[in-house]
Automatic annotation (TrEMBL):
<keyword id="KW-0067">ATP-binding</keyword>
<dbReference type="Pfam" id="PF13614">
    <property type="entry name" value="AAA_31"/>
</dbReference>
<dbReference type="InterPro" id="IPR050625">
    <property type="entry name" value="ParA/MinD_ATPase"/>
</dbReference>
<feature type="domain" description="AAA">
    <location>
        <begin position="260"/>
        <end position="421"/>
    </location>
</feature>
<feature type="region of interest" description="Disordered">
    <location>
        <begin position="500"/>
        <end position="519"/>
    </location>
</feature>
<dbReference type="InterPro" id="IPR025669">
    <property type="entry name" value="AAA_dom"/>
</dbReference>
<keyword id="KW-0547">Nucleotide-binding</keyword>
<feature type="compositionally biased region" description="Low complexity">
    <location>
        <begin position="49"/>
        <end position="77"/>
    </location>
</feature>
<protein>
    <submittedName>
        <fullName>CpaE family protein</fullName>
    </submittedName>
</protein>
<feature type="compositionally biased region" description="Low complexity">
    <location>
        <begin position="20"/>
        <end position="42"/>
    </location>
</feature>
<dbReference type="InterPro" id="IPR027417">
    <property type="entry name" value="P-loop_NTPase"/>
</dbReference>
<feature type="region of interest" description="Disordered">
    <location>
        <begin position="1"/>
        <end position="105"/>
    </location>
</feature>
<dbReference type="InterPro" id="IPR011006">
    <property type="entry name" value="CheY-like_superfamily"/>
</dbReference>
Length: 519
């Protein structure tokens, strides 16, 4: 976007969808008042780079005589009558058009649907850009401050100031504009657009502009998009709305998708975190029928190869030793194929090396692996290092596995508190209580354990040494040993919670096919 380059407006002002797509049958039907089907929808994404060659903030070129201008009284303006959205450029618009209440904005089902869809995918880090935010309300500034501390904004640099759109115009008279400018304006639409025209005069080429307003007005939104504004957000906002709006502006359509990263971590050694990580990865692929990659990061003592009866020549250590060379072809060679949908990055599980690897290598490798499958399950060792901290805080889902004893309670509380402080905009980690009900062992009750962490367990697994022992010794998953066991069904339930997917219905088999199978 180049706000200083003058050109032609490629958008035809007298384009009327009703005229272009009306059939003969529609023409014969009684006339109905047109209804805007997008009135309740959230703002659309910015057009592709290079799609607009005109000055995004310059006044639009004069329309041909007789053309319908949707922003002045006329035939097209009937779509934005007072009964619908009102005239967004009249200073009296605020007098006759009530603003949406915060409660109404919060209950928008479209926003909830989009948030749910985004939550089922992995979320990318925002690139290393500078962001300036000019707010009119202190509440908006507080929200922007919380968004700036979000884990997805770790590479970006954000500066939040009060003063709104007018302060931004004054600030950039004598200084260059950053990659992204977010401005809040509570002024009427006409005054807001005049201030945006002044901002366009001082904006550098390539700067993106996001406007935060108080009117949920489709006509105003369309005019802002026509002038080249990248996005329009309606206050009040929450931090994730700001983060996802920025992420959407810098999403690369040509980049590979980002799989959802799920990290399993034990509150102490021997609680079964690795066993659960392996079984959940298997359940995601075999029960929910989607691809996944299991990464065993316990380099010295990893058991993923044993649990899947795999002894690959290459594995995750080869990737960590040369992260810059890791691409899709090399990644495919290093991974072992456990099932048709499940791939394994096995650990070397030897003591021939000290495994002194920097946190940058772990971060680069895990980020590249996320492009290999929709779900990436990380089996983390019971140790503490800077790379593990980064992975814990950077994962989309974190599962803490504990047993009902005091040491697990203390360690689990430390991890939960750390995650809550570092990820205030994310859901809390999931808690799994394993090996509950060991005969003769004093245990902390499940209810008391959850209350101490202020976190209800997502799964409680009973003590079943025969099932778990048989699976481990035979290199099988719990579902392969006994699919009807409570532990196997619990693992399936946890896999559905994490992946946000339902298992497909079982296929019905005919009597003839069952006879053929017997033969």
């Amino acid at each position: 976007m180049n706000p200083k380059t003058q050109g032609l407006d490629p958008i035809d002002a007298d384009f009327e969808p009703a005229d272009e797509f009306t059939t003969a049958a529609d023409a014969a039907a009684p006339a109905r008042a047109p209804v805007d089907p997008f009135a309740d929808f959230p703002p659309a994404r910015e057009p592709e780079a290079g799609a607009l060659a005109h000055d995004p903030f310059a006044p639009a070129a004069a329309a041909p005589a007789g053309a319908d201008d949707p922003f002045v009284p006329g035939p097209a303006a009937e779509r934005f009558s007072d009964e619908d959205v009102g005239d967004p450029f009249s200073t009296a618009a605020a007098d006759h058009e009530p603003l949406p209440s915060p409660a109404a904005a919060a209950s928008n089902p479209v926003h909830e649907l989009i948030a749910g869809a985004e939550a089922a995918l992995g979320e990318a880090m925002i690139p290393r850009i500078a962001i300036h935010v000019y707010c009119e309300q202190q509440a908006t500034a507080d929200t922007a401050e919380r968004a700036a501390t979000d884990r997805r904004m770790g590479k970006a640099t954000a500066t939040i100031k009060l003063g709104g759109l007018s302060a931004a115009v004054d600030a950039y008279q004598n200084q260059p504009t950053p990659s992204l400018v977010m401005v809040e304006s509570l002024a009427p639409a006409g005054e807001m657009l005049n201030q945006l025209d002044r901002l366009a005069e001082v904006c550098d080429p390539g700067t993106k502009v996001v406007v935060i307003g108080s009117a949920n007005d489709i006509a105003l939104y369309r005019e802002l998009m026509r002038r080249g504004v990248s996005e329009y957000l309606v206050a009040p906002l929450d931090p994730l709305q700001i983060v996802r709006a920025i992420s959407g502006l810098y999403a690369d359509p040509s980049a590979p998708f980002i799989g959802r990263q799920i990290a399993f971590c034990g509150a102490k050694g021997g609680v079964g975190a690795s066993t659960l990580a392996h079984n959940v990865a298997h359940a995601i692929t075999e029960r929910l029928l989607t691809n996944a990659v299991l990464v065993d990061l316990d380099l010295a003592f990893g058991t993923a190869g044993l649990d899947f009866n795999q002894d690959p020549i290459q594995g995750v250590m080869d990737a960590l030793s040369q992260p810059d060379r890791l691409d899709a072809v090399l990644m495919d060679r290093m991974m072992a194929r456990c099932t048709e949908r499940l791939s394994l990055f096995a650990a070397p599980a030897t003591l021939d090396d000290d495994y002194e690897i920097g946190p940058e290598a772990f971060e680069e490798v895990t980020q590249k692996i996320r492009s290999a499958a929709p779900f990436v399950v990380l089996d983390l060792p019971h140790s503490w290092a800077s790379w593990k901290r980064k992975i814990l805080l950077g994962s989309d889902d974190l599962i803490i596995v504990a047993t009902p004893d005091l040491a697990s309670l203390r360690n689990a509380k430390n991890m939960v508190d750390l995650v809550r402080r570092a990820r205030p905009n994310d859901p809390p980690p999931r808690l799994v209580l394993n090996m509950v009900g060991v005969p003769g062992r004093p245990e902390i009750p499940v209810k008391d354990f959850g209350e101490a962490l202020a976190l209800a367990p997502s799964l409680v697994l009973p003590f079943d040494p025969k099932l778990f022992g048989s699976a481990a010794n035979n290199g099988q998953m719990l579902a392969e040993v006994n699919a009807k066991s409570p532990a196997a069904e619990g693992v399936n339930h946890l896999a559905q919670l994490i992946s946000r997917r339902e298992a497909p219905p079982p296929q019905k088999t005919s009597f003839l096919s069952s006879l053929l199978k017997r033969k």
